[in-house]
Amino acid sequence: MDRFADLERVQTLILQRIEKLELSLLLPQELDVKGGSDVGRNVLTTEEFLSGILRSQGVSDFCFKRVPKDYYDWSLDSRKDVLDASSVDHLCKSIVMVNTQASASVTDCSDHNNSKYYVVVVQYTARLNAENIKNFLYTLNNGKIAKKKFNMRLAPEKESLELTGFEHNGVTCIGMKTDIP
Questions:
Q1: Reduced to 3 states, what is the DSSP secondary structure of residue 119?
Q2: Helix H segments across 26-147?
Q3: pLDDT at position 42, please?
Q4: Sign (positive/negative) of CA torsion 132, 135, 136, 137?
Q5: pLDDT tens-digit map of 74-131
Q6: What global pTM score does this model have?
Q7: Are the C-beta atoms of 141 and 112 separated by less than 8 Å?
Q8: 3-state SS string over 51-81?
Q9: Which residues are listed as membrane-spanning (predicted)?
């Protein structure tokens, strides 16, 4: 009886390793999150998709929590409680920003130092400071690009969705369609 339990355990581990390998070989755009209509594609829930990416990168300690639709109407303390966060200062959001003053030749994210788009992670308790982002990008480029060539604004929802594959209030830095710096 113990031999069967050992065999089952080994088989489960092998299947998990195969799944991890498959997910690490697929690019995000090759995967479809449940709800898509492309026949023959790998269809995963958002949680399965993100879990596969995290596991393939060696991250094993994570969890996902679904929240009610009115979550963003709640107080920060209520949000902290439902997410089991240590404090409201641990609550963050990912925001896709667009550089509206980028030169005409900068149209995508191929140059991480001088990209059309950036993802910024901001604490709920902090204010987004576009001037700080501009200064960071100026410094990142060793002053070779004039500060006036950086004007960061919130990307329109449609652009954010196209770039990340995630709906409004669901953007995460993990598993985006585009490699946005």
A1: strand
A2: 46-56, 76-83, 130-140
A3: 55
A4: positive
A5: 999 999 999 999 999 999 999 999 999 999 999 999 999 999 999 999 999 999 999 9
A6: 0.73
A7: no
A8: HHHHHHCCCCCCCCCCCCCCHHHCCHHHHHH
A9: none
